[in-house]
Design brief:
Order of helices and strands: HHHHHEEEHHHHHHHHHHHHH
Radius of gyration: 27 Å
Strand content: under 5%
Strand order of the largest sheet: 1-2-3
Number of helices: 18
Largest sheet: 3 strands, antiparallel
Helix content: 55-70%
């Protein structure tokens, strides 16, 4: 127990949520990777890979949550580095699902966009904490220029990530009390730009965008979600390439019922192409039922609530905004993934944080958890009760020793020498 108290510092609720999400991840990824094990000669390879990333992320958390939160401002250096990586990714990156999102360095592939998300949140939190020194208007302009540049670099290969990142930074500016007039004008401008882009996308002939894979995919997903379809019928409904993922996700949810089919007994994991990633929440509902799905949703809601409580206890502004940004990155992405799985949002390709099978996303999410725990320790003073008790005990011991010494009459010089000689 003492070893656990020394290792797991910071907010205990965050630790419990993290452990539950990792447990669910290992169970469901092991079940959902059935298609990968079928193609792989090593039956354990997919789950060993995923577990290795979780363990690496856990080790990072143990290191990061012992670093005082004020040092995380140094992560701003990742912003220009990630921007440079995003520039070269379309030319040197690995093509996956008709998009260049991964770079490979010394045999290790990673997503530069994940580094950009982390750097952007630190960048916004740092600038928001300097409002009194720099001024609100200048801070707003600096944030808008920096984040817009990063999001524009992410946009061509991963529209959903760029939109989500900008939305999270916008929420951080709202919480950071940026001028409401500027935020309102920015929101109106973004709505106008999005409406114009969607209208232009549907106005262009199919032959014009046929060679651009991402535009074709984007147009198809928007059309599938917003275009009204005729009522479903068992005799007329046909599963084709356009509705394949959504249809099998809905079948998985329908099969789940209240308590599910139990882990390992799901059927749609063999049909969904991204059953272990983008649509793992549908597999969770199929195997653990509505109860399991609501429990996962509850974990993310509890995480955001706890992050808010940590932020309220922070005395300094940088850790306050930093912990809110990290919490928003995890929970907003989780809500988008779950909304896609149940048909409430267009297909985006966002994984479920800490649960979906992944490499870069899993490790970066663990870094967010480590930062949250660090802020809870050094910014909010949560989880250091044992240290404080030990310090109080040492202080009491010193006081007792001093009291004992003061109560006794000092020996004279002659008595001291006599006792030493004896």
């Amino acid at each position: 127990m003492e070893l656990a108290n020394k290792l797991f510092k910071g907010d205990r609720v965050i630790w419990i949520i993290f452990m539950f999400l990792c447990l669910i991840s290992v169970i469901e990824v092991f079940s959902a990777t059935s298609t990968l094990t079928y193609r792989n000669s090593n039956y354990w390879a997919p789950i060993v890979r995923h577990t290795s990333f979780l363990l690496a992320g856990f080790a990072l958390i143990l290191v990061i949550h012992n670093i005082p939160s004020r040092f995380f401002s140094a992560l701003i250096i990742l912003l220009p580095i990630s921007a440079l990586l995003l520039i070269v990714t379309p030319f040197l990156g690995i093509s996956t699902n008709d998009a260049h999102r991964f770079l490979e360095v010394f045999g290790i592939s990673f997503q530069p966009s994940e580094l950009a998300k982390l750097a952007s949140v630190v960048y916004v939190a740092f600038l928001l904490s300097k409002q009194d020194k720099i001024g609100k208007d200048r801070v707003f302009n600096y944030i808008l220029i920096g984040i817009s540049g990063v999001c524009l670099l992410i946009f061509p290969e991963n529209f959903s990530t760029s939109a989500m990142l900008f939305f999270i930074c916008y929420l951080m500016m709202f919480v950071g009390q940026m001028p409401l007039k500027k935020l309102g004008l920015l929101a109106l401008f973004l709505v106008f730009v999005m409406a114009f882009m969607v209208a232009l996308l549907f106005a262009l002939p199919n032959d014009t965008i046929k060679g651009v894979a991402r535009l074709e995919t984007m147009k198809g997903r928007i059309a599938d979600f917003f275009v009204e379809k005729p009522p479903l019928s068992a005799d007329t409904y046909v599963i084709d390439d356009d509705n394949y993922q959504v249809s099998h996700a809905q079948i998985a949810i329908a099969r789940g019922g209240v308590f599910g089919q139990m882990p390992g007994h799901g059927q749609q994991r063999d049909f969904l192409p991204q059953a272990y990633s983008d649509f793992i929440y549908a597999i969770i509902i199929e195997e653990l039922g509505v109860v399991g799905g609501l429990f996962v949703l509850f974990l993310y809601i509890a995480l955001m609530i706890r992050v808010g409580m940590i932020a309220r206890k922070c005395d300094k502004l940088f850790p306050k905004y930093l912990v809110l940004g990290c919490g928003l990155l995890i929970t907003v992405q989780a809500f988008i993934n779950m909304a896609v799985a149940v048909g409430l949002f267009p297909v985006t390709g966002q994984p479920l944080p800490l649960v979906s099978r992944g490499g870069t996303s899993t490790v970066i999410t663990c870094i967010y958890i480590g930062i949250i725990l660090s802020v809870s320790r050094f910014g909010a003073g949560i989880g250091n009760e044992e240290d404080e008790e030990d310090e109080d005990a040492d202080d009491v011991s010193i006081i007792e020793i001093d009291t004992d010494i003061s109560d006794k009459t000092p020996l004279s010089a002659v008595e001291t020498v006599t006792k030493v000689n004896v």
